[in-house]
Amino acid sequence: MKLAIVGNGKIVTECLFALQDVPEVEVVSIWGRPTSLDRTKSLADDYGIMEVYTDYEKMLTETNADTVYIGIINSMHYDYAKLALIAGKNVIMEKPFTATAEQAKDLASIALDHHLFIFEAMTVFHNETYAKAVETLPWLGRIRMVQCNFSQYSSRYQKYKEGYPAPSFTLEAYGGALMDINVYNINFVVGLFGQPEDVLYVANKGFNGIDVSGTLLLVYKDFVAELVACKDSDSESFLMVQGEEGYFKVPDKANTLGGLDIFIGHGENIAKEEFRPKPVHHRMVQEFKDFIKAIEEDDYDKVNKSLSHSISVCDILERAAESAGLRYGD
Predict the structure, then answer these.
(1) Which residues of the chain does CATH 3.30.360.10 include?
(2) CATH assignment of 125-278?
(3) Which residues, at least 6 apart from 106, have a Cβ–Cβ distance to it below 8 Å?
């Protein structure tokens, strides 16, 4: 894979670090805004990237990259991905995939019409712990409760309280707790249980209307999933699924899924198992390996399943935002 990188922020830095352990990827180009050219050049120097651009369409025209990784603010995902697909490039898109389900469907249609691949970079599904959770789920019996908590005091929150919101704390950039971190909880739950019957989001809003934290309820036939995400405070993060025959708990955030504690039975007859995945260089390594494999094997079944899931999540994000009165783009 010859890869062009779009962006120069924290997630791009993580991506470039992760790719040091993926020899199948050659990063040939990087794009950043003219106002952050020094930052882009610095990353290019650090990681041996030969081509630096501040004109996105020029990069798409000139680069010999076959795939574009998009790691920019949420509100720019759709437009930049669409341009890349039209230019004949495969796309790997950071979460959230797009702002709306219709945008997601449009990108999927363009990609499939041009026999291109587009993936959402959602590490949840490229983790041994998630695979173990899927394997364990039938042991739990009828599911009665799901709880997820992703709490992480943002390094940008103090500046936000002082009246200087970063893009990740603005409606204009489609930021906030729902889009930035609860999206991981949503992916985990929808991956296990599919689309809910109803969606309700109660948000704690800051001075500019953004959700600095909130609780999302996904209503299924037999249970309710309670998904909490906080950028304004810290606590233990976890994911827990309870059934009539047992439960499991991930004692970690949904984006890293550091292990699974399994409890089957009741009272004194509980069987316990502790599962921990093999150590990895970085959580993003396996997803890139999986994307490369899908492209090399021309596995459109895989990409169709992935896109169907991403569209479902985008639909939930839309419904959640509407229920909380979040008006993105304002």
Answers:
(1) 125-278
(2) 3.30.360.10
(3) 78, 82
Check if the beta carbon of residue 247 is closer than 8 Å to that of residue 241: yes
User: Taken in order 114, 120, 121, 126, is the CA torsion positive or negative?
Assistant: negative
Measured in whole angstroms, the distance separating CA 292 from the mean position of its chain's CA atoms is 18
Token couple for 156: 């940008």
pLDDT tens, residue by residue, 297-316: 999 999 999 999 999 999 99
Cα 328–Cα 227–Cα 164 angle in degrees, nearest 5: 40
CB atoms within 10 A of CB 45: 10
Rounded CA separation 156/165 (Å): 8
Q: What is the distance between the alpha carbons of residues 271 and 301, in angstroms, rounded to a whole number?
A: 37
Could you report how far apart the first and last alpha carbons of the chain are, in Å? 38
293: Cβ contacts below 8 Å, ≥ 6 apart? 299
Dihedral (CA of 315, 320, 325, 327) sign? negative
For 123-159, b/e burial (b = at least 16 CB within 10 A) is bbbbbbbbebbeebeebbeebeebbbbbbbebebbee
Which two three-digit tokens encode residue 192? Answer: 């296990």
pLDDT digits (tens, 9 = 90+) for 142-184: 999 999 999 999 999 999 999 999 999 999 999 999 999 999 9
CATH of 2-120, one of 3.40.1360.10, 3.10.105.10, 3.40.50.720, 3.30.390.30: 3.40.50.720
Residues 6+ apart with CB under 8 A from 266: none
pLDDT for 134: 98
134: tokens are: 């899927």
Q: What is the pTM of this model?
A: 0.96
Which residues, including other chains, have CB under 8 Å from residue 131's CB and lie 6 or more apart?
Answer: none
